[in-house]
Amino acid sequence: MQQRRIGTRTVSAIGLGEMPLSIEGRPDEAQALRTIAASLDAGVTLIDTADAYSLGGQDTGHGERLVAKALAAYGGDTSAVLVATKGGHLRPGDGSWDVDGRPEYLKQAAEASLKALGVDSIGLYQFHRPDPKVPYAESVGALAELLDAGTIQMAGISNANVSQIDEAQQVLGGRLASVQNQFAPNFRSSREELRHCGEQGIAFLPWSPLGGIGNAGEQDDAFREVADAHGISPQQAVLAWMLALGDHVLPIPGSSRPETAQASAAAADVTLTADEVARLDAVG
Asked: Does residue 242 contact residue 272 with C-beta atoms inside 8 Å?
């Protein structure tokens, strides 16, 4: 599988977004574990999760515990796998979402994630979502402290705009490893952040790259036509297009079944022509 860089680590160009395995509508644990194993079998070495990927309340950290269990049960070598998790987004337990970007909370959340993942140091820890009640620099400052303490090996941010990317890079002293924003054929408002990350040498991780849960099968005619030309699915064409946007782009499609996890991973081996990339760029 094609490889790419996040900070100091080399990982698969396409990762696994763990969220569908932990929130509402999630499969049973046996299927979830098979899905993660199928990704690993396909060469995936980047798994993205978060403490908030759960049903809320006492279920907080479900996604992290699931990933830890899957890696422990996997029969092959997992030493190259980078687990990325996030803190600062909350699930109170009533189906709603909230945010908490206070530095003291983020440091507490990172310690809880450390325990849930069963590791001595978190590979990549990302501030999940800006908290309008807390100055952004203060939230990111907690990541700098976690880096300095060795609690985390790399720091990233999520759902950030260009100015926040620059602010985070400054606060972290040039150690910002990744930006994780929503980006898909039907959601391209993060294109400027994608471009900016490329210029700054920061990995860009599109979340919901296939359009989100329930929309993954809906793609523009152009994607279907390019897919037909390569004998692949429209979803694979989407992922191949994203990879062509820059060597710093690493999409993290979510999967809840082993078959879709392996199909997504296979898109890393698809190469589109320059004309095809330009045509898909023009969609929307």
From this structure: no
**Model pLDDT for residues 173-212, shown as the tens digit of each residue:** 999 999 999 999 999 999 999 999 999 999 999 999 998 6
| Residues in CB range of 264: below 8 A, 6 or more apart | 14, 16, 235, 236, 239, 253, 255
**Measured between alpha carbons, how far is 5 from 9 in angstroms, rounded to an integer?**
6
**CB–CB of 176/169 below 8 Å?**
yes
- Any residues with CB less than 8 A from the CB of 44 and at least 6 apart, and which? 1, 12, 14, 15, 16, 261, 265
Catalytic: 53?
Answer: yes
- List the catalytic residue out of 53, 105, 125, 136: 53
- Dist. CA 263–CA 66, nearest whole Å: 21
> Is-contact 97 89, C-beta < 8 A?
yes
Tell me the C-alpha distance between 266 and 243, whole Å: 12
What are the residues whose beta carbons fall under 8 Å from the beta carbon of 213, sequence distance 6 or more?
20, 25, 254
DSSP assignment of 85-105 equals EEESEE--SSS--EE---HHH
CA 256, CA 216: separation in Å to the nearest integer?
12
The pLDDT confidence band at residue 9, using thresholds 50, 70 and 90, is very high
Q: Residue 69 and residue 280: Cα distance in Å, rounded?
A: 39
Q: Whole-model pTM above 0.90?
A: yes
Between residues 14 and 221, the one the model is more confident about:
14
Nearest of 131, 70, 132 to residue 101 by alpha carbon: 131
Burial category of 74 from C-beta neighbours within 10 Å (exposed 0-12, middle 13-18, buried 19 and up): middle
User: Mind listing the domains of the chain with CATH numbers?
Assistant: 3-220+242-258 (3.20.20.100)
Contacts of 70 (CB under 8 A, 6+ apart): 32, 33, 36, 37, 40
